[in-house]
Amino acid sequence: MATDRRSIYALPVGCDPEFDEFWELLSENGATTRRLPTFDAATREYGHEYAALSPDAASLAFTSSRYLESENTLRYRLSVYDLDTLSIARYDLPNPPSHIWGGLVWSSDSRRLYFAIDAGLPEDEPSRPYGLWAWDTQEQSISRIADLTEPAMHLLGISADDVWLLLAPEHQQTVTYIYLPTGEHTLLELPPEGVDAIVR
Questions:
Q1: Does residue 180 sit within a domain?
Q2: Which helix (H) or strand (E) holds 190?
Q3: Where residue 91 sits, what CATH number does that domain have?
Q4: How many other CB atoms are there within 10 angstroms of residue 153's CB atom?
Q5: What angle do CA 44, 47, 53 make, to 5 degrees?
Q6: Cα–chain center distance at 150
Q7: Which tens digits make up the pLDDT trace of 129-154?
Q8: Which of 129, 120, 123 is closest to 178 using CA atoms?
């Protein structure tokens, strides 16, 4: 939702996992006010899987994929919509082929966007983790924050002071806290009877 609470951003039905546009909707009646394309005809790049609006509603980050005909494979990137200029900046992920897994999480000040990167394509098995990374809005660059011990980690949230990031693996038998200033890990074992979902 935009900071004025008048607009929300949504994906139209049928966008799983690829999407070629966002819809900006009026919160009072659901009317579509703008369509924001994610598709780049020159590179044949689509939005793919994850999206997150910054707390200041200035940026809309999303993952994207494009087909490389010369290599007969997909390449994944981080894309960021500037909602003032309606321009898209696209950033190659490190260690290609690689992909973002488990979502995108903004810091509360909208300065950094956090995400986990895994090796290969999403359907590759087995995969391996490339760590926790962040895109910095001021430096316009991607940097490594911490190692991860296993792939397919879901980003669950960030503390109000932007110091701790919470992640959980697919099986949700543990959760991991990462202290962002140092990358230090704290592992929490969940009750043996099982947890159905982590409340965010």
A1: no
A2: none
A3: 2.130.10.10
A4: 23
A5: 145
A6: 18
A7: 999 999 999 999 999 999 998 899 99
A8: 129
